[in-house]
Specification:
The protein has about 170 residues and is mainly beta. The chain has one domain: Jelly Rolls. It has no helices and 14 strands.
């Protein structure tokens, strides 16, 4: 039995900026959108694997997501999603209190850098915020056993639940 995956990546930022003047109001209103559809496959602009979860990290804790062996419960079965290439990651920090931040990157071994430049680089995802990175043409390679750990750390003082989806290819 074969599986197929259709995926869509969307992000938008809209605004209405107004300045009241003596004789009227100046308005700047617009919307900046990014929307891409990816077909099933392993070539540019394609993806054939998706992994997603909602996870909770205690204060001060960290976990390494092994991108080459991500466990997933799907349709009542336990499966392992093995990514060879990452096309997109969406991580949502659901904490609502300022200072309850997640830190992404900086695994101490087998570090996957993906969109990060240098070893040890990290990104902060503040409370009530998200991180979306996309590389739909060539993706970021994952090398099993060598560079396959994405670290997520809780730098806050309370438990943080986050939601994550990783879109990629199996080869």
């Amino acid at each position: 039995m074969s599986d197929t995956l259709s995926s869509e990546i969307k992000a938008s930022l809209g605004w209405l900026f107004q300045d009241s003047l003596n004789l009227g109001t100046v308005v700047d209103s617009s919307l900046l959108e990014y929307r891409q559809l990816l077909a099933d496959g392993m070539l540019a602009d394609q993806a054939d694997k998706i992994w997603h979860d909602a996870r909770t990290l205690p204060a001060g804790a960290s976990e390494d997501l092994v991108l080459s062996a991500l466990p997933l419960s799907l349709f009542g079965d336990s499966v392992v999603i093995a990514l060879a290439n990452v096309r997109a990651i969406l991580l949502i920090n659901t904490a609502t209190t300022a200072g309850e931040d997640l830190v992404v990157g900086g695994a101490t071994s087998r570090e996957w850098r993906g969109p990060l430049v240098a070893s040890g680089d990290r990104l902060i995802v503040p409370a009530d915020s998200c991180l979306l990175v996309v590389n739909k043409k060539s993706g970021w390679p994952v090398v099993a056993g060598l560079s396959d750990k994405l670290r997520v750390s809780n730098s806050g003082s309370g438990d943080i639940t986050y939601k994550i989806a990783i879109l990629g290819t199996s080869a």
